[in-house]
Amino acid sequence: MIKSARKVILSNTLRRKRFFVLQFISQISVWISPWVISTDGNLYLSSAKSLFTNSMYEFFHFIRTPGYPLLIKIVTLDNFLLPLFIVQAFLLALGIHMTANAFERIRPHNSKITLVISILTLLVLRGYITGVLKEVLLLFIISLCVDFNSRLYVMEGSKKVGPALGIYYLTICFLATITFPILGIAAIGSTSYSLLRKASLQKMQIFYTISINLFICGLFLFSWSSFQDSAIESGRNNFPNSATVSQFQFFDSPERDKRFEQRMQASAAVLGLAPERYGFDSYSIGSEIKNYALPTFNTNIYDSPLECGRYDSIVEPTKSFIRDLRESNRFCRNQLTLEVSNFFNQIMRFGYFLWAMGFLAGFVFSIIRFRSKEFLLCSSVFIIYGGYVILGAGASRYGAPCFLISGFLLNSLLQDFNSREKSLQNESRHTKRRNKD
């Protein structure tokens, strides 16, 4: 009993240390990484600034849902982006920590190995911290899904879905839906799968919980779609063409073989392993990873050589609308931080390749053993990855969810393989002893 209590205390201590180590590295990344505000970033800023104002019809980019613009609106103080990046650093480190805890919850792991994987995962994804993109929020919500599934897996003795668990489930799915519809589908699908396979839970309780969630998320999407249509039909929006699905630039070739080829290319391009494709235009391997997760330092942007980051050109009315926010963001680093950032970028180019291969290996094994614990935990990421492949969307920036889980997934599968090997060896020894006796 005493030994067991000591193990729990030691385990909690190691987890706290891991949390603080990840937070430290993540916050340091805010100060040594280039600030990248691309075309999408400008559109998010415009959407955030117009949210809940009379200018929303003109300056909200209605191809987006309001989740990430709402986060920007809440944390951006006095038109300054530093608080946003600090919050994104906190959420990314917390998400990785929660993902590590989830895998440890379902299967015993070596704490030191888990710490190393956690740090490597953070280093691979750290470039997204100082970008105005939804990736960090998306990764955090996925970590909530993974955490929920692991908690449900180990839950014992309960015969119903308690209020706290139901609220947690609703929060995850609603955050996912307002941030990214595919993520909402993945969250509802994967967490519902976790609920349904839990034999100890009452089926009617599960039915009510899933139904309420579907109703609330569906009501939001219907309301948002109606508001979106009215804004576009008003003729006042600066981005009328960008509000249609066709503007996603994911096109299907009329030739059947080409469509299959497009899906195959997308499956590798999302992981940065093949040339990317926007519509019928092909780009270099991992181009979005290089632009966003491993951004190059560019000081020749907008109208000030002292400003750091990258600002792409957008329509003039929007540029004027967010000018005051952009003008207040002159934040440069010295030569040392520039060199440190570029050094890490060179290492992480190789790290992305390893993480991509790790995800592919884990994905294949988990699909083969679809009733495994690992499949249960990672099902939301598998749904998102499958969605991108079905759409033919081959942008490597979209592979961020895969990189969040890949190291933990592969390590967990190896732990499972080792435990099976040991059990087989023990059975073999027992059999030999019996035969001798």
Percent of residues in beta strands: under 5%
For the report, how would you describe the main beta sheet? 2 strands, antiparallel
Separate helix tally: 17
Low-confidence stretches: 243-251, 298-307
- N-to-C SSE string, H for helix and E for strand: HHHHHHHHHHHEEHHHHHH
Global shape: globular
Rounded to the nearest angstrom, the radius of gyration is: 23 Å
Structure described in brief:
By secondary structure, the chain is mainly alpha-helical. Helices cover 69% and strands 2% of the residues.
Question: Can you tell me about this structure?
Answer:
The chain has 437 residues and is an all-alpha fold. It has one domain. It has helices spanning 2-32, 39-50, 56-59, 67-75, 82-106, 111-125, 135-154, 163-179, 181-196, 203-233, 256-269, 287-293, 316-321, 323-327, 335-368, 373-391, 400-436; strands at residues 275-278, 281-285. It has a two-stranded antiparallel ribbon with strand order 1-2. The protein is globular, with a radius of gyration of 23 Å. The model is unreliable at 243-251 and 298-307 (pLDDT under 50).
